[in-house]
Write a structure and sequence with these properties.
The complex is a heterodimer of chains A (412) and B (113). With 412 residues, chain A is α/β, with parallel strands linked by helices. Helices cover 18% and strands 34% of the residues of chain A. Chain B is an alpha+beta fold. Chain B has a five-stranded mixed beta sheet with strand order 8-5-6-10-9, with no helix packed on it. Classes of the chains: A alpha/beta (412), B alpha+beta (113). The complex binds flavin-adenine dinucleotide and iron/sulfur cluster.
Chain lengths: 412, 113
C-alpha cells in the first residue's frame, strides 16, 4: 500500500496544473497517467493558439504541455505513467494497473479527477448506413497524423464544425488530402470564427449548415456518403439527399467527460455538463474528491483548464490538511438563456469567486445579469454571445448571502 | 474583396476595397474590424504549423517562428516534404533556417530524444 496526500488521476494540463498547485501548497503528490507521457490531448494539438491568456504568448499544444512538464519535474512530483486507474472507493482507495508493476493499491487523503473527455462516435450519434473502415473521430485522426505519422484518408468529408473538425480539415489539407466539405447539422458553427476563416475559407473548403450525413456507403472501405439537409426539427429532408464520393469521414460531433471511473461513487453529476457538480473549491459531493478540466466540463481554452486545475489542486491540499472551508453553501442557478454555470455551489466566505458559464444559443446584444436575493450583483451588455465561447464573471463572496441567479435579458 | 472579421463571434462580413489608393472598409461594427480588414487586404499572414519526418520513422511537429504571407503557405509546406531530421531535437531548435527565403525559421515544437 502506497500513501499520498493528494493523488491526481490524469496527466493532461488539468492533472499537471492540479498537481503543481497541490505540491506548491505543501502536499506530497502523485500523478497517475495511462499514456506513456504527460501532456494529455495537448501532445497531438500541434497547431498554435494555446497559452495567450496564461503565458501571454501563442504556443502550440506540445509547447504549452512542456512548460508544465518542466514544472512538474522541478517540483519533483511523483508520476506513474502507463498506469490506468480502474477503481476508486469513497474512502479514497485507488486501484491501478501499471505496465511495469502490475496491480497497485494506493491510499489518498484527497483525489483530483482530471481524466479529460472522449469523443462521441458514429454509434453515439446513430449515424446511418454501412460500417466500413474509414470512419474516424477527428481527434483520433489527429493523433494518428500528428503523433504516429499516418494520414487516415485522401478524400475527406468532415461531419461537425467544432474546432477539432475545423483544425483537422486544415491539417489533412496540409498533409496532402483533399477535404471535400464540412457538414454542420446546426444553423451555426460551435467553432471559433478564427478557425472557420483560417482552416476552411483560406483553403476554399465549403461549410454547409443544416446538413448532415444521412448514410455512409461502402463495403470494406468508405466509398462515399449520402448528405442531406435537415429541417427545423432536425429531420432529414429526403428530396435533398445527395451522394458524395469520398474515402474517409471525420466526425467532430462533441466530447463527453470521461467519468465512467466514478460512476459507482455516488458523486452528484450535472445532467447538463455530464461532469460532477462542484463548489467553488472544485470539491464534488463526495468528501475529498475534487474535479477539474475537461472531465468536469468541456473547455475550449486550455488557459481556463489550468486556472481551474490550480484551484482544485490547492483545495485538495487544504482538504488533506483538514483546512478546507466548509459550512453554509449557496446554489448558482442558470436560467433564461444561460445553459450552465460552474461552480454549481458557492461556500459562504470572503474574497472573490469566478463563475464560468455558457449560453444556450446565439444572442445579439444580450445583457448578462447576476442576482442574489433579488439584488443585482453584476450586469454587462455584450455585443454578441455564442454557445462556443465560455464566459466568466467575478463576484464578491461577501455579497453572496443566498442562492445566486445568472441569466440573460434579451431585447426582442 | 469580402472578408470575415475573426476578432469576435459577431463575425462581421466586411467589404474591403482600394479606392484612389486608399483602402476602405465597410461592414465592420468596431475599429478592430477595420484594422483586421486592412491587414487582410494588404498582406494577409498566418503562422504555419506542420510535421517533418524523423529518420527513424517518427514525426516531429514544427512551426514558423513568425507568421508568413498567406499565399506562401503551400509553397512553404511543399518544401518540407524532403526534410528529414535526426534526434536529439529540442523544442525551439531551428529545423530550416530562413525557410523559402521568407525571413523566418522553421522551429521544432516537440522534444524528440
Ligand atoms: C483537437 C483539440 C483542439 C484544441 N484546440 C485548442 C486551442 O487551439 N486552444 C486552446 O486553448 N485549447 C484548445 N483545446 C482545448 C484544450 O486542449 C483542452 O480543453 C485541454 O487540453 C483539456 O485538458 P484535460 O487535462 O482536462 O484533459 P486531457 O488533455 O484529455 O488529459 C486527460 C488525461 O487523463 C488521462 N486519463 C484518463 N483516464 C485515466 C485513467 N483512468 N487512469 C489514468 N489516466 C487517465 C488521459 O490519458 C489523458 O492524458 C483543444 C482541444 C482539442 C481536443
Ligand atoms: S468588426 Fe468588431 S464586432 Fe465585428 S467581428 Fe470584428 S471585432 Fe467583432
Amino acid at each position: 500500500m502506497i500513501n499520498y496526500d493528494v493523488v491526481v488521476i490524469g496527466g493532461g494540463p488539468a492533472g499537471m496544473g492540479a498537481a503543481i498547485s497541490a505540491k506548491e501548497n505543501g502536499a506530497n503528490v502523485l500523478i497517475i497517467e495511462r499514456d506513456d507521457k504527460l501532456g494529455g490531448i495537448l501532445n497531438q494539438c500541434i497547431h498554435n493558439g494555446f497559452g495567450l491568456h496564461y503565458f501571454h504568448v501563442e504556443l502550440t499544444g506540445p509547447e504549452y504541455a512542456d512548460r508544465f512538464i518542466q514544472r512538474v519535474q522541478e517540483l519533483q512530483i511523483d508520476v506513474m505513467t502507463q498506469t490506468f486507474v480502474i477503481n476508486i472507493t469513497a474512502d479514497r482507495m485507488l486501484t491501478a494497473v501499471s505496465a511495469t508493476e502490475g496491480i497497485v493499491e494506493i491510499s489518498a487523503k484527497a483525489i483530483v479527477l482530471a481524466m479529460g473527455c472522449r469523443e462521441r462516435t458514429a454509434g453515439a450519434i446513430q449515424l446511418g448506413g454501412d460500417r466500413p473502415a474509414g470512419v474516424w473521430t477527428a481527434g483520433l485522426a489527429q493523433k494518428l497524423c500528428n503523433i504516429d505519422g499516418y494520414l487516415v484518408g485522401k478524400n475527406v468529408v468532415v461531419l461537425g464544425s467544432g474546432d477539432i473538425g475545423l483544425i483537422m480539415a486544415r491539417r489533412m489539407t496540409y498533409e496532402g488530402a483533399n477535404v471535400i466539405m464540412v457538414c454542420e447539422v446546426m444553423p451555426y458553427s460551435s467553432g471559433l470564427k478564427r478557425n472557420i476563416v483560417q482552416c476552411l475559407n483560406d483553403y476554399n473548403i465549403p461549410l454547409y449548415f443544416k446538413t448532415t450525413i444521412a448514410e455512409i456507403v461502402g463495403k470494406d472501405r468508405v466509398e462515399g456518403v449520402v448528405i442531406a439537409q435537415v429541417d427545423d426539427r432536425m429531420q432529414i429532408i429526403s428530396s435533398t439527399r445527395k451522394y458524395v464520393e469520398c474515402d474517409c469521414v471525420l466526425l467532430s460531433v462533441g466530447l463527453i467527460p470521461e467519468n465512467d471511473l466514478v460512476n459507482g461513487l455516488g458523486i452528484k453529476m450535472s445532467p447538463v455538463t455530464t461532469g460532477a457538480e462542484v463548489d467553488d473549491y472544485r470539491h464534488t459531493s463526495v468528501e475529498g474528491i475534487f474535479s477539474c478540466g475537461n472531465v468536469l466540463h468541456v473547455h475550449d481554452l486550455v488557459d481556463n483548464v489550468s486556472a481551474e486545475a490550480f484551484i482544485a489542486g490547492a483545495s485538495a491540499t487544504k482538504y488533506a490538511k483538514g483546512e478546507l472551508p466548509h459550512g453554509q453553501s449557496y446554489r448558482v442557478i442558470p436560467q433564461n438563456g444561460v445553459r450552465y454555470a460552474l461552480p454549481q455551489r458557492i461556500i459562504a466566505g470572503e474574497g472573490k469567486v469566478k463563475v464560468y458559464y455558457r449560453v444556450d444559443n446565439i444572442y445579439k446584444a444580450p445583457r448578462v445579469v447576476v442576482k442574489c436575493n433579488g439584488e443585482e450583483l453584476y450586469s454587462r451588455r455584450y455585443m454578441i454571445m455564442a454557445p462556443g465561447e465560455m464566459e466568466s464573471v467575478e463576484l464578491d463572496k461577501e455579497k453572496i448571502v443566498g442562492d445566486v441567479v445568472i441569466e440573460l435579458e434579451v431585447q426582442q | 474583396m469580402n472578408i470575415t472579421c475573426i476578432n469576435c463571434p459577431m463575425g462581421c462580413q466586411m467589404v474591403v476595397d482600394k479606392i484612389d489608393g486608399v483602402v476602405t472598409v465597410k461592414g465592420n461594427t468596431c475599429p478592430r474590424g477595420r484594422t483586421y480588414g486592412i491587414q487582410e487586404y494588404t498582406l494577409p499572414k498566418r503562422m504555419v504549423t506542420s510535421l517533418v519526418r524523423v529518420n527513424d520513422g517518427r514525426v516531429l511537429s514544427v512551426k514558423t517562428s513568425d507568421s508568413i504571407p498567406k499565399d506562401k503557405i503551400i509553397h512553404c509546406l511543399n518544401s518540407l516534404k524532403d526534410v528529414i531530421v535526426a534526434p536529439p531535437i529540442h523544442i525551439g531548435d531551428c529545423i530550416v533556417a530562413n525557410i523559402c527565403n521568407l525571413g523566418v525559421d522553421l522551429v521544432a515544437t516537440k522534444n524528440i530524444l
